[in-house]
Amino acid sequence: MIGGLFIYNHKGEILISRIYRDDIARNAVDAFRVNVIHARSQIRSPVTNIARTSFFHLKKANIWITAVTRQNVNAAMVFEMLHKTLALMTSYFGKVSEEAIKNNFVLIYELLDEILDFGYPQKTDSGILKTFITQQGIKTTTVEEQTKITNQVTGQIGWRRDGIKYRRNELFLDVLENVNLLMNAQGKVLSAHVSGRVVMRSYLSGMPECKFGMNDKVMVDNKEKESSGLKDDAAYKKRNQGIAIDDCTFHQCVKLSKFETERSISFIPPDGEFELMRYRTTKDISFPFRIIPLVRETGNKMEIKVVLKSNYRTALLGQKIEVRIPTPSTTSGVNLMCNKGRSKYKSSDNAVVWRIKRMAGLKEAQLTAEIELLPSTDNKKWQRPPISMNFEVAYAPSGLTVRYLKVFEPKLGYSDKSTTKFIRYIGRAGLYEVRV
C-alpha cells in the first residue's frame, strides 16, 4: 500500500501533497527534495530509499510525481498507478505542466481521493471516473497553439514572411522518383513500386498563389467524362493517360479542400527550397532498364552473361549506370569482357562492378564474366544473390507529367507569363534487383 503521493515542480516546490497513512510524516516531502531533486549527482534509479522510506518517482517534462511508502510493496504496481495518474490528468486537462496543475489542483485532489483509498489503488479508468467526476479541467494553451489560433483567425501565413522581393521571379520544380523493382530471371515482375517527391525552389516576390496540376488518374477521368465526344478516340486516350497514385502527402502550405474538389494543388509557397508533396504508385510503371542474366556452371568454372537493355526513348540518355553482379565466395580469378563501359572485379565485395557513363534509349550492352572457382570441401550450393543496379534517367518512370504550373500575384501586378519556370524530371534506382 502507498503512504502518500506528492507532485513537485523542477525547483522542488510542492504542488500537490496527499498523505493516505499515518506512517508517513510531513518531513518526507523535504527528504525527497533534498536527496533526489537537489542532489549533486544525477539520480538514475526511479526508486530511492531514505531512512527506511521508499520513494517511487517519475519525471515528466518539469514535473516530478512521487509515491511514498514504508511497506514492502509491489514496485510494478506502484509505477503502473503513477502512469495511470498521469494519463488521467492528461485526459482531464491536456498537457501536464506546472501551470496546468496549479489551475486544476481541486480536480487533482478529487481524482487522488478516488484513485487511492487508504493507500490501496481503486479506480484508474478515465471512463468510469468521468461518470461521477464531471468537472471539466482548465486546459492551458501553449505558445505554438496560440500562434496557430492567431494565424487561423488573422489569415497570417506562418511559413512565409511579408515583403519578399526579387528582381526576377523564378520557380523551379523537380519531379524526383525512385524505382523499386524485384524481377525473377525469366523477366516476371515480383514486386515494384515508385516513390516520388515533388521538390520546389521558389524565388517569387510578394505573397503569390501557385497552382500545380498533374496527370492524376481521377482528374483525367473527370475530364474524359466532360469531353464525351473525344473519349473513344485512341489517340486522345494515349495522350491523356493518367497515373493512379496510391497515396500522397502534402506540405502544410497546400489547400487540401481544393485538391479534394478540383484535384488541383493550390498553395502559397515558402521562400526557397521545400518539398511540395510525396507520392507512391504501383501501377503502369515504365522500367528504364531490363537486365537479362544467364549463368552456366561447369566443374570449377562459371560463366555469367548479362545483357542490359534500355527501354526509354532514343532522345533520352541514362547516366551514372552501375550494375553489380555477385560472384561466389570461392572465386579465384575473373576474366571480364564488355562491349560498353568499364568492368572490374572487387574481391572484397565478391562482386563484378560494371559502370557505364551514358547510354542512349533503346540500346543494348553486354558483359561476360568467366569465373574460376577454388575447389571446396563444402557441399553448400551458391545461393545466387540478385543482380542490383543504380542509374539516373531524365524522365519519371511512374508516368507523372506536370500539366500546368501557374503563378498569381495581384498585389504586385506581375503575371504568370512574366515568371520564369523550370520543370525537371529525374528517375533513379531505389532497390532495383533481378534474381539470377
Characterization of this structure:
The chain has 436 residues and is α+β, with helices and mostly antiparallel strands. It has 9 helices and 23 strands. A hairpin with a 2-residue loop joins strand 6 (116-117) and strand 7 (120-121). It is flat and about 90 Å long. Residues 227-239 have low confidence and may be disordered.
List the helices and strands and how they pair.
Elements: E1 4-8, E2 14-19, H1 28-37, E3 47-50, E4 53-60, E5 63-69, H2 75-93, H3 98-103, H4 105-115, E6 116-117, E7 120-121, H5 126-132, H6 143-154, E8 170-183, E9 189-203, E10 209-214, H7 217-226, H8 234-239, E11 247-250, H9 256-262, E12 265-267, E13 272-281, E14 289-298, E15 301-310, E16 317-326, E17 331-338, E18 342-346, E19 351-360, E20 364-373, E21 387-393, E22 402-408, E23 420-434
Parallel strand pairs: 8-23
Antiparallel strand pairs: 1-2, 1-5, 3-4, 4-5, 6-7, 8-9, 9-13, 10-12, 10-22, 11-13, 14-15, 15-20, 16-19, 16-21, 17-20, 18-19, 21-23
Number of strands: 23
**In percent, how much strand structure appears in the residues?**
35-45%
Outline: flat
Low-confidence stretches: 227-239
N/C terminus separation: 66 Å
Q: What does the main sheet amount to?
A: 9 strands, mixed
Radius of gyration: 33 Å
Helix content percent band:
10-25%
Structural class of the secondary elements? Answer: alpha+beta
Instruction: Report mean pLDDT, rounded to a whole number.
Output: 86
Number of helices: 9
